[in-house]
Amino acid sequence: MKAGRIAVRYARALFLSAGEQGVLDTVRKDMELILATVSDMAEVISLLESPVVETRKKTSILVSLFEHRVSALALDFIRLVTGNNREEYFAAICRHYIKLYKEEKGIKVAHIETARPLTEALRQEMITIITRAFKADIELEEEVRKDLIGGFLLRVEDKQLDSSVKGKLGRIKKALQK
User: In the chain, is it the N or the C terminus that has fewer CB atoms within a 10 Å radius of its CB?
Assistant: First the structure.
């Protein structure tokens, strides 16, 4: 079975279980914590990928790492995933759960790239404008790219708005080359 299908099935099962128990929000936070941990900590990554470490040992380490930090459902889920030797898919499972959560709650992710960090006032104004345009709650992901020179590049789903100086210069250059 392909990795993507495995992650989707586990994430969907967790999502349904969390929904039945009324803990979707709690489990989302748990999945964000687990994702950050399994993505950023080299020791955890090598533990999960190691074929030498026994499943029981992996389960024990992961449970002790998260037991006072995540919900009981998330802990049971960790035990299930490691018990089925699927620990290498933790990051993909977490990402897919978060995606399912956002779809369920009607949250769209807007990715904005700017030459300088946004001020809080500008951030709130952008969220308000994007929320109005897409008629959905918006989660804003920010990235600073000095090469944009000024302005911004905004992506929401499959739509993109390039209002950067770099983009405008590129369009002028292309027009002059015709």
Answer: C
Whole-number Å distance between alpha carbons of 5 and 28: 20
If asked whether residues 95 and 123 sit together in one domain, one would say: no
pLDDT, tens only, 160-172: 999 999 999 999 9
Q: What is the pLDDT of residues 29-69, one digit of tens each?
A: 999 999 998 888 878 778 777 888 888 888 898 899 899 99
Where does residue 147 rank: exposed (0-12), middle (13-18), buried (19+ CB within 10 A)?
Answer: exposed
CA separation for the pair 38, 90 (Å, rounded): 7
CATH for 33: 1.10.520.20
Q: In the sheet that 152-156 helps form, which strands lie side by side, from edge to edge?
A: 137-144, 107-114, 152-156, 159-162
User: Which domain does 61 fall in, by range?
Assistant: 3-103
Do 89 and 116 fall within a single domain? Answer: no
Task: Report how many domains make up the chain.
Answer: 2
Domain end position, chosen among 49, 69, 103: 103
Question: What's the CA gap between 127 and 158, in Å, rounded?
Answer: 18
Contact 98, 24 (CB under 8 A): no
Segments in the chain forming alpha helices (H)? 3-21, 24-40, 42-49, 55-66, 72-83, 90-105, 120-134, 165-177
Choose the final residue of a domain: 103, 120, 151: 103
